[in-house]
Every structure is written in structure tokens, then in C-alpha cells.
Specification:
Blueprint lengths: L16 H16 L2 H4 L7 H20 L10 E4 L5 H7 L8 E5 L2 H10 L4 E4 L12 E7 L8 H14 E12 L14 H7 L3 E10 L1 H4 L6 H8 L6 E10 L7
Parallel strand pairs: 1-2, 1-4, 2-3, 4-5
Antiparallel strand pairs: 5-7, 6-7
């Protein structure tokens, strides 16, 4: 501020629902860093391992079915990348690291991802415009993001921005809760019709998967037998995975 200028009063965050939602997300994600929360997703738990394996197999199946597996020319984004493991896995399917980007609202996971996977590109993004040009990406993946954004307006703005940076004919892959989580009030299930409303100029293919996580984690040594049997019951599947292909006439939002 130059000498002689008067600083305008800062408005309360209560006047900015978007800022409130971003602040809430930051607070919730900090809680997720606790040891008690992270222990739920311990890699040594057989239920966790089989849920992740199922998720990745379904992702590969969808990408292959629509000829969208990464190749040397694919530019990909993991929106809500966390500590970078999912982006690293996606890149290993056939991409070139220099073309793979991860974005997260939280500085701590972005810093961790940068240290763990220095060959990939990570940055922190706020609630505004993402630092990429229109139609830049060929593939975007977004895991457990929409269910975490409780503010409807912010959800719409996030999806509009993702649509802007995805080229026509490219794909977005979404994995998220399809039901509310009674053990976590900070997430809200996202119905297929809501995804279709957020991305209206896309053709989606959906699959339901992931047996109720608290139940899956308790299967222990019987997991390899019981999990395939339990996932036959649709009411036990808590998540959707959807691959959406953007119409080529819709280059920008």
C-alpha cells in the first residue's frame, strides 16, 4: 500500500460463503492428518488393500474401454491429489511424468508429494482459477473431492473450472461416495444425477463399487473370499466410479 492510501476494511468471511467453505475444508483436512484417521487406511489392513485394488482395476477397465489409458502424449491432472500416490500410479500406466500434474488445496500434502515424486508436477490451488490454459488436459481424475465440498456453489465453480481446462473429446474420471457417510458429517454422497448436472455436456459410464469400508476392514484373513461375495449386493457398495467423455464441441465452459 502506498503512503497516504487508506486501507479498505476487510469484510467478514460470513459475507463470502466460498471463503467459508475453503476454510472449512482446510480445517477438516487437517483433522484427517491425525494418527487415528490415518490408521483407518493402514496399508497392512487386508480390507483396505482389496478396496484399493478393486478401485484401480475398475479405473483401468474404464480407461481401456474408452481408449483413454495414458500414453506418451497424455497430459493428465489429479485434482485433489493429496500426497501424490494416485498420480504416480496413473502415470505408471503409460504416461510421461513431465505431462502429469497434481493440484490440492492443502499445502502440506503438496509439499509431501513434491518430495516423494519430484519427477511429477505439483502445485497448490485456492478456490479461484487453476493455473492451466483452456483445453490443456487429456485426462483428469478426481477422487473423493465432490463429496467433501458441501457448498453447492463452490462445487459448481470447481467443476466449471475443470471443464475449462479439459479439451473436447477428453475424459474425466470421478470416484466418490454415492451415499452419505454416517460416521463423517464432513462429506455428502454424490448421486449420479448430480454428476450429470455438474458436467452436462459429457457422456458418462458409471459403476458402483467399494463394499462399506468399516465392514471391509473387519474381514481380516477372510477378505479374499468374503469381499467378492459381499460386493454382489448393490446396497453394500458405497461409491461410484464414472468416466465422462467431454463432447468435442464443448472446448470451454
Amino acid at each position: 500500500m502506498r503512503t497516504g492510501e487508506t486501507q479498505m476494511p476487510v469484510k467478514s468471511d460470513s459475507c463470502n460463503p466460498k471463503a467459508n467453505e475453503a476454510e472449512r475444508l482446510q480445517k477438516v483436512y487437517r483433522q484427517y492428518l491425525s494418527n487415528s484417521y490415518n490408521s483407518r487406511w493402514a496399508e497392512g489392513n487386508a480390507g483396505n488393500a482389496v478396496m484399493i485394488e478393486e478401485q484401480r482395476k475398475e479405473q483401468i477397465r474404464l480407461l481401456r474401454a474408452y481408449d483413454r489409458l495414458p500414453n506418451s502424449g497424455t497430459r493428465a491432472l489429479d485434482f485433489g491429489c493429496g500426497s501424490g500416490g494416485s498420480l504416480e500410479w496413473l502415470c505408471k500406466l503409460g504416461g510421461v511424468a513431465a505431462n502429469f500434474h497434481g493440484v490440492d488445496i492443502r499445502p502440506e500434502p503438496v509439499n509431501l508429494a513434491t518430495r516423494r515424486y519430484p519427477h511429477l508436477n505439483f502445485c497448490r490451488a485456492g478456490e479461484g482459477r487453476l493455473p492451466f490454459p483452456d483445453g490443456f488436459f487429456d485426462l483428469i481424475q478426481m477422487h473423493l473431492v465432490l463429496s467433501s465440498i458441501l457448498d453447492t456453489h463452490m462445487r459448481t465453480q470447481v467443476c466449471s473450472e475443470l471443464n475449462r481446462i479439459l479439451r473436447g473429446g477428453a475424459a474425466i474420471l470421478i470416484y466418490d461416495f454415492r451415499v452419505n457417510n454416517p460416521g463423517n458429517p464432513n462429506v455428502r454422497g454424490v448421486k449420479r444425477r448430480e454428476v450429470l448436472a455438474l458436467f452436462p455436456k459429457y457422456q458418462f459410464d458409471f459403476r458402483s463399487l467399494t463394499v462399506v469400508p468399516p465392514l471391509s476392514r473387519r474381514l481380516g484373513g477372510f477378505c479374499s473370499v468374503l469381499y467378492p461375495a459381499l460386493k454382489l449386493f448393490p446396497f453394500l457398495r458405497t461409491h461410484n466410479m464414472g468416466l465422462g467423455i467431454k463432447m468435442k464441441s464443448e472446448e470451454t465452459a
